[in-house]
Write a structure and sequence with these properties.
498 residues; alpha/beta; Aldehyde Dehydrogenase, Chain A, domain 1; Aldehyde Dehydrogenase, Chain A, domain 2; seven-stranded mixed β-sheet; six-stranded mixed β-sheet; 15 helices; binds NADP nicotinamide-adenine-dinucleotide phosphate; binds magnesium ion
Amino acid sequence: MLDDRQTEIRRLSHLAPPTTQAIIGSGLCSACSGATRAVTSPIDGSTIAQIPDCDASDVDRAVAAARRAFEARHWQGMAPKQRKRILVKWAELVAAEHLPLAVLESRDMGMPVGMADGFEVAFAIDALRWYAETADKIYDEMVQLEDNVTSLVFHAPLGVVGAILPWNAPAMIGAWKLGPALATGNSVILKPAEDASLVLMRIAELGLEAGLPEGVLQVVTGDGKAGAALAAHMDVDAITFTGSGEVGRHIMAAAAASNLKRVSLELGGKSANIVMADASDLESAAEVSVRFMFGNQGQVCEAPTRLLVQKPIREAFVEAVVKKAKSLKVGDPLELTSDLGPIINESQRAMILGRIEQATREGVRLALDGRTATVPQAGTYLAPSVATNVDPKGSLAQEEVFGPVLAVIEFDTVDEAIALANSTRYGLGASIWSSHLDTVLYASKRLVAGNIAVNGGTGPVVELPFGGFKQSGFGRDRSLHALEKYTDLKTVTLRTAR
Ligand code: NAP
Ligand code: MG
């Protein structure tokens, strides 16, 4: 069975990417300038495709088409049931390409294919289906003010939404934004990250196949300049962004300097993973912590990158974590047996190595040094590292690494653990392992984090809102609450003669 799947993955990995064009206006197209950029694979640096290198003039064209579509009301004015049918069909077209998309994702950005298939693309499809179903379940409100005065409260779509995405889980994060923005009737312009565009380009093309009207879903490919043009555009009504704090700041500034477009930001994290000595199953706590920390090579915004361990179990627990981290297989992400693939690109790998270097100068000890492991030479691989003796104020405890580097810090009491957990500028995720309900509730109320997992929690399910406090951003993806990001309230008051 496994062999059959592996053979199929190998076959798919030799196919040319299905979509290599942008979508602007009436369909697939090149950049106005004709410029292209090479898409390379972090597996071996090979070129997989050439895609349009869009700039501000392409963004102008896309915004004009999005505005025309919105004003023509072909989408926002469509019967919600019909809108739902198109979105459901879209989700099913994506589902029909589940494995090819997972393989393409793996080639494009290095996620192990098992994770791309069973996790990322699977959660993307689930989110598209879920939001498709909301399209005809969004009810407006009515307020009876007087016997002859009736007010209607509409949840009106915003208009033209720019969705700017990161490279680390593009299909899934893309679905979290496209699903609710489209279900509520907006026109969306998608800007994938230059390092991971191919899967989103195909997903968007399938949207056109499913029947999304012209101008409702467009894709401008290329680097940050296309995103910057969207953020600064006078006729874009909202930007929904996932990525770094640095770019998030640029987007807010551009919104302020242009038309005060609405902005929502999902940014980085430095999530604490608190392991209390009274946790009932330390073995599975170690297993889950390691999987979550090193999955996707640690390139997960919510990864539990700070392991806070209570002193009595510190030694044994760290030993278990190191053993498990060491046993993870680093290699070709197209092999189903690989646990970690390559880092997204060479400069990101150099940045991670720089962080390890700096931390060692600050006095951390590497209980596991990923730099010394044997990994494939072609490609940007880096094995897991586990650092102990980490100063809670030091760089490894404070700065996001976005790579396979775990920082271990010890504590005595739960209050100390909470204070440590809250001592960074981030507030995205947190986890706690304990068999005492009192402890976990006490801690959960005090942890400043958008998403808290107790004794393992759950995966990135669409049913739950996702996002952060503090400098991890604002606004929530997923759940019905995400619909609020793409609509605003409009009241209509009717005064009748009798
Ligand atoms: P990034 O560098 O901030 O890029 C994100 C997106 O913004 C990319 O599409 C990028 O384009 C674009 N961009 C670059 N400069 C821009 C500008 N001046 N104006 C508008 N857009 C611009 O982030 P990344 O390296 O892709 O992703 C890693 C970061 O994302 C990490 O910090 C991670 O924590 C965070 N992240 C957060 C979440 C979350 O949900 N909270 C999830 C995943 C990742 P190009 O890349 O094409 O240049
Ligand atoms: Mg790539």
